[in-house]
Amino acid sequence: MKLYQHPMSTTCRPIIMFIADEGLDVEQQVVDILAGEQYGDAYKLVNPSCLVPALDDDDFPLIESSAILKYLAEKSGSKAYPKDIRARTRVNERLDWVNTNFYRSFGYGLVYTQILDPYKLTDAAAHKAQVLMGLSQAQRFLAVMNDHMLGNGATWLAGDDITIADYLASGIVSVGEVIGCTFKDYPNIANWLARMKARPNWQAANGAIQQWAEFVKGPTYVTV
Fold it and tell me: Containing H/E element for 139?
């Protein structure tokens, strides 16, 4: 089994950390997305979408982070993907919510529009409006996570125990630190992220966040 990844990737880091936490035997190959390796003919055979991550298990390919987490958790029998139908459905719901509503608004709408050229508008006024719209949408969904999912003393996103939903969400929430987000207005999220960071494999799996932050350091970003 081989995982194609890059350590800076928002959606690779949760899988890298899950593999480490569970002690899974998965070969990992870095795809140099900074040099454009993902667009090369060789990698297109792995993932025609030209994105990371991708997992290949004996000619069974998967190219979506949520599906990869589910597959690895199911195959390994991880408690992070519970068997009980209601508990598992709750995890699936959180994964879908994180991957669509939250990632779209926070990741692509607020963070990437400020630091990744393909998501920036060339017109300054239009770009500013785009970022502010992303901020508004991000705040909306951050409030849902903070008040509903992590409110009333909840420790994890889908129940009393950590699940693969927490892994995926932590990769997306933590990318906000690249632009300087502190989540001070969302204390439940800040405390939850601190719990994720306290796990023994966090730094090894997520250390590239600091490298990315240093690389884009300089401008004053719109943050939460």
Answer: helix 124-143
State whether 178 and 202 are in the same domain. yes
Residue with tokens 């390796």: 37
Question: Global pTM?
Answer: 0.98
By 3-state DSSP, what share of the chain in percent is helix, strand and coil, each rounded to 5?
55, 5, 35
Q: Which residue has 């990698």 as its token pair?
A: 43
Mean pLDDT confidence for 42-54:
98
Distance between CA 194 and CA 30 in Å, rounded?
A: 27
Residue 223 lies in a domain: no
Q: Is 145 part of any domain?
A: yes
Share of the chain above pLDDT 70, in %: 100
> Which residues constitute the domain of residue 116?
85-215
Question: In 56-116, where does DSSP find H-type helix?
Answer: 65-76, 85-97, 112-115
In this structure, are 58 and 132 located in the same domain? no
Which pLDDT tens digit goes with each residue over 57-115?
Answer: 999 999 999 999 999 999 999 999 999 999 999 999 999 999 999 999 999 999 999 99
- Domain assignment present for residue 121? The answer is yes
On whether the CB atoms of residues 42 and 96 are closer than 8 A, the answer is no
Tell me the pLDDT band of 140, cut-offs 50, 70 and 90: very high
- The continuous run of DSSP H or E covering 2 comes out as strand 2-5
| Domains of the chain: total | 2
Residue 164: name the closest of 55, 81, 98 by CA.
Answer: 81
